[in-house]
Write a structure and sequence with these properties.
By secondary structure, this protein is an alpha+beta fold. About 50% of the residues lie in helices and about 15% in strands. The radius of gyration is 29 Å and the shape is globular. It contains 25 helices and 19 strands. The structure holds adenosine-5'-diphosphate and magnesium ion. Adenosine-5'-diphosphate (ADP) binds next to β9, β11 and β14. The site of magnesium ion (MG) has 3 residues, from loops.
Length: about 725
């Protein structure tokens, strides 16, 4: 039931913080207590089983049924001891959020009773009735059922009374129906390609692991005020609302003190996150009022993404306990900053060093440059794909606005790396590469400082910035599944590293030395990838023109941005890295277009309803009041006096009437545009119609409503205003 504006505002302003009592133990003592992690496995599995499962995880080996049975038995014992009654396969379908179907641990005991049961078979595979998950036409035939399969690299965990088993979700014909499957495939592709290139410099490296450290931004609003805003409830963003006189102009929210209600929420969330083994570390206010951020310590890419998914659902749950609602939408409020999810990405070796750190020794420097340059090349060649990977109806509100990276992908390296690349490009091989007595290659000129964090020139406007020992992909939206962007990045870099090796080997086959071949190829790459390097202000209009001149992808329409997935060179890249097939890519695009359509469709419907049922009736009432006032003036004053006295009230009536008629007319037009778009069969064409012909009405209608908000009697206005939504007491 929706609640009236004044009621809601009053309730919200009287609310007290819900105090959270922290566990008595230290964090390190309860960290991961709801996770079937290695520590717990050691306790509940035999030595042999423990060894078999950890080896299988570390080396990516298939786990046989016998081991699975033993692991399942251990898991069940642990879970039952913790009062758990149900289990579920937890997966990430192509929607927002995760999916789960709970089954109880019970089976017939053959004597009319029940026993607690959980076999290896149930652990490893299930067939969720998944015909209603988006599949882009992959599951249209009846034999194309889907199944979920255990991902042992991400540990099982407990939520309430349920044991959750992270799984991939696949069609019986083998196509991925989720985000996790291709992410895992991309991690494998990158590990392998990076290891092969790493062997030019260090033959002792056996394994490369991609890392991800995300930074999650979000908004909080009071629950009652949220309930008085149907647009927030149904679309997670305000479709109308005039800017508050005060918002973020004074920059007083960023790193400011955190209100106590929020403080308690954060404390609660962190405790829950620790129990789930999510290593959260940083929390602070963000730029906009009511906006906050939370970041963990980085982890292996697939696990980090699971943790982000888990955290997002945890946030929603914990927020309710504190009478808040979390908004993960990229742009809940017009005129103030939106929310992103920066993805910090790097690669580590099993020898403990990071491939994006220049390292202590000179022989590390050339390896460092090789990985930086190849990453740049990948971002350059696949800049349109990377943009498509972060594109969504909701993120489009944020990108290109005056606060977030523009809808153009470029990379910022900082002055130090830029200088090194320039120098490398312009020097001779003798200056660039030296070979020492142990035949190791290192950078000929100077030493790259180990610490590259140059805070003075960290460029906040860059969508893909080098930040000392990692790249930070900043264009992601706060509601996104990081897997989508990470799998594109991992695959592109993997493919590029393979190309690098081929190019080097081709030169060596012609008789060139290893160092000469590496030198030549790197030099060529540095030249070729130059257009992607941009250290200036990404928010400026000049950059948009410059980027177009450089041939970077500047497409701003989301449905058209998705086309990048189906370019022949992109399909080839995904197929050759074994991450996604053409069929999977096509199906995924169908889903992307469909989601785009539905999001805009829902917003259009909600705005239509709000306009006709909430705003226009109130505006008409106010208009009548003004007319009544005019009639009274007429009764009271003579014609001469009336001339001046009625001038302003008349003008006001005209203004109000004009806005009313614009809104009603445009709502009608928007409905017509929707009807027309709905008749289109082809998903892509339909999405384009929604983008071009329906979407623009949202802002146009809003413009008039927001002006009405400024005129209509505050007492009559039905929906909480920005100033009421945005400042938690
Ligand atoms: P800032 O807001 O200044 O970018 P934060 O401390 O908020 O920095 O976030 C940094 C994020 O980057 C954290 O999630 C952190 O774990 C992650 N991170 C740090 N080093 C690496 C690395 N080598 N690889 C991947 N992520 C990293
Ligand atoms: Mg950051």
């Amino acid at each position: 039931m929706s609640i009236s504006r004044f009621n809601a505002v009053e309730k919200a302003s009287n609310r007290k913080a819900v105090e959270v009592i922290a566990p008595k133990q230290k964090v390190s003592e309860y960290y991961g207590e709801n996770v079937f992690n290695r520590k717990t496995m050691q306790k509940y599995l035999s030595k042999e089983t423990y060894k078999a499962i950890t080896q299988a995880i570390d080396n990516g080996i298939q786990i046989d049924r016998e081991i699975a049975n033993l692991v399942a038995a251990g898991m069940r014992m642990w879970a039952l001891e913790k009062g758990v009654t149900h289990y579920t396969h937890w997966f990430q379908p192509l929607t927002d959020g995760t999916a789960e179907k709970h089954d109880a641990f019970v089976e017939h005991d053959g004597q009319g009773g029940l026993i607690e049961e959980f076999s290896g078979k149930l652990l490893t595979q299930q067939e969720p009735d998944a015909s209603s998950f988006p599949n882009g036409g992959l599951r249209n035939t009846f034999e194309a059922r889907g199944y979920s399969a255990w991902d042992p690299s991400s540990p099982a965990f407990i939520v309430d009374d349920t044991l959750c088993i992270p799984t991939v979700f696949i069609a019986y014909t083998g196509e991925a129906l989720d985000y996790k499957t291709p992410l895992i495939r991309s991690v494998e592709a990158l590990s392998e390609a990076a290891r092969d290139v790493c062997h030019y410099f260090d033959e002792e490296v056996n394994k490369i692991t991609p890392f991800l450290g995300w930074e999650q931004e979000y908004f909080l609003v009071d629950e009652d005020i949220y309930s008085a805003r149907p647009d927030l409830m149904l679309t997670e963003r305000t479709l109308l609302g005039h800017e508050s006189a005060k918002n973020q102009q004074l920059d007083d929210h960023y790193f400011g003190s955190i209100p106590s209600r929020v403080q308690e929420f954060m404390k609660d969330l962190e405790i829950e996150a620790y129990k789930m083994g999510i290593p959260v570390k940083t929390r602070h206010n963000e730029v906009a009022p009511n906006q906050f951020e939370l970041a963990p310590i980085y982890e292996e890419c697939n696990l980090a993404n699971d943790h982000n998914q888990l955290l997002m659902s945890l946030m929603k749950k914990v927020a309710r306990r504190h009478n808040f609602r979390v908004l993960l939408h990229e742009k809940p409020f017009m005129g103030i900053n939106g929310s992103g999810k920066h993805c910090n990405w790097s690669m580590g070796t099993d020898k403990g060093y990071n491939l994006f750190s220049p390292g202590k020794n000179r022989e590390d420097n050339l390896r460092f440059i090789t990985f930086i340059v190849n990453s740049l090349m990948a971002v350059y060649k696949y800049n349109a794909l990377l943009k498509a990977s972060i594109a969504s109806a909701s993120n489009a509100h944020r990108l290109g606005a005056n606060e977030a990276p523009p809808a153009i992908i470029s990379s910022f390296l900082g002055t130090q790396i830029t200088e090194i690349l320039n120098r490398f490009e312009n020097c001779s091989i003798e200056d660039a590469i030296q070979v020492d007595e142990k035949k190791r290659l290192h950078l000929g000129f100077g030493q790259i400082p180990e610490l590259l964090l140059d805070n003075t020139d960290r460029n906040r406007t860059s969508p893909f910035a080098f930040t000392g020992n990692r790249f930070e992909f900043r264009a992601l939206g706060s509601s996104a599944n990081c897997g989508v962007a990470m799998l594109a990045l991992n695959s592109a870099v993997a493919y590029q590293l393979r190309q690098f090796k081929q190019d080097v080997e081709a030169l060596r086959a012609k008789g060139e030395s290893k160092e000469a071949a590496i030198f030549e190829v790197l030099k060529a790459y540095i030249k070729e990838s130059k257009p992607i390097r941009f250290d200036g202000n990404g928010y400026s209009d000049a950059w948009k023109e410059e980027a177009a001149r450089r041939g970077l992808d500047c497409e701003s329409s989301v449905p058209l941005q998705y086309d990048a997935y189906l370019k022949p060179e992109v399909i080839r890249m995904f197929e050759e890295t074994n991450v996604l097939t053409e069929k999977e890519l096509e199906a995924r695009n169908e889903v992307k277009w469909e989601i785009y359509i539905k999001k805009v469709q829902i917003e259009a419907r909600v705005l239509g309803d709000l306009s006709l049922n909430h705003i226009i009736p109130v505006a008409l009432r106010y208009q009548s009041l003004l007319l009544e006032n005019l009639a009274r003036l007429k009764e009271t004053f003579d014609a001469d006096e009336l001339k001046t006295l009625s001038e302003e009230p008349k003008r006001l009536v005209v203004k109000v009437a004009n806005h009313i008629s614009h809104v009603t007319r445009m709502v009608d037009e928007m409905v017509e545009a929707r009807k027309k778009a709905n008749r289109i069969q082809d998903m892509r064409e339909k999405a384009i119609a929604y983008h071009d012909d329906v979407f623009p009405y949202l802002d146009k209608i809003r413009y008039h409503i927001d002006h009405l908000e400024l005129m209509v009697d505050n007492q009559m206005w039905p929906l909480p205003k920005y100033r009421e939504l945005l400042f938690i007491r």
